[in-house]
């Protein structure tokens, strides 16, 4: 099974925002946000929704699809 990955780093880059900006928005530790961005750790579902809210995107934008388009 493929390891869970997220697109947090990509979405931040697309919006010209930084890990530190996201950490401040969420009131989270910068190290934690950095680990999410490097896919060393994954946020909880609840936190993923908070991240989507902060970035003003659909939560699905932050996820890597588990299905190949057919």
Describe, in short, the structure shown:
49% of the residues lie in helices and 0% in strands. It is an all-alpha fold.
Description:
The protein is mostly helical and 70 residues long. It has a single domain (8-58), classed as 434 Repressor (Amino-terminal Domain), CATH 1.10.260.40. Helices cover 49% and strands 0% of the residues. The chain is built from four helices and no strands. The protein is globular, with a radius of gyration of 12 Å.
SSE sequence, one letter per element = HHHH
Strand content: under 5%
Number of structural units classed as domains: 1
CATH fold topology: 434 Repressor (Amino-terminal Domain)
CATH superfamily: lambda repressor-like DNA-binding domains
Which structural class do you get from the secondary structure elements?
mainly alpha
> What is the 3D shape?
globular
- The CATH class name reads Mainly Alpha
User: Termini, distance in Å?
Assistant: 20 Å
Mean pLDDT: 93
Report the radius of gyration as a whole number of Å: 12 Å
- Number-wise, the strands total 0
Percent of residues in helices comes to 40-55%
């Amino acid at each position: 099974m493929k390891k869970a990955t997220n697109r947090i780093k990509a979405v931040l880059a697309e919006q010209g925002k930084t890990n530190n900006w996201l950490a401040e928005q969420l009131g989270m530790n910068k190290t934690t946000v950095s680990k999410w961005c490097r896919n060393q750790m994954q946020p909880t579902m609840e936190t993923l929704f908070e991240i989507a809210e902060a970035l003003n995107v659909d939560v699905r934008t932050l996820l890597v699809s588990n299905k190949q388009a057919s």
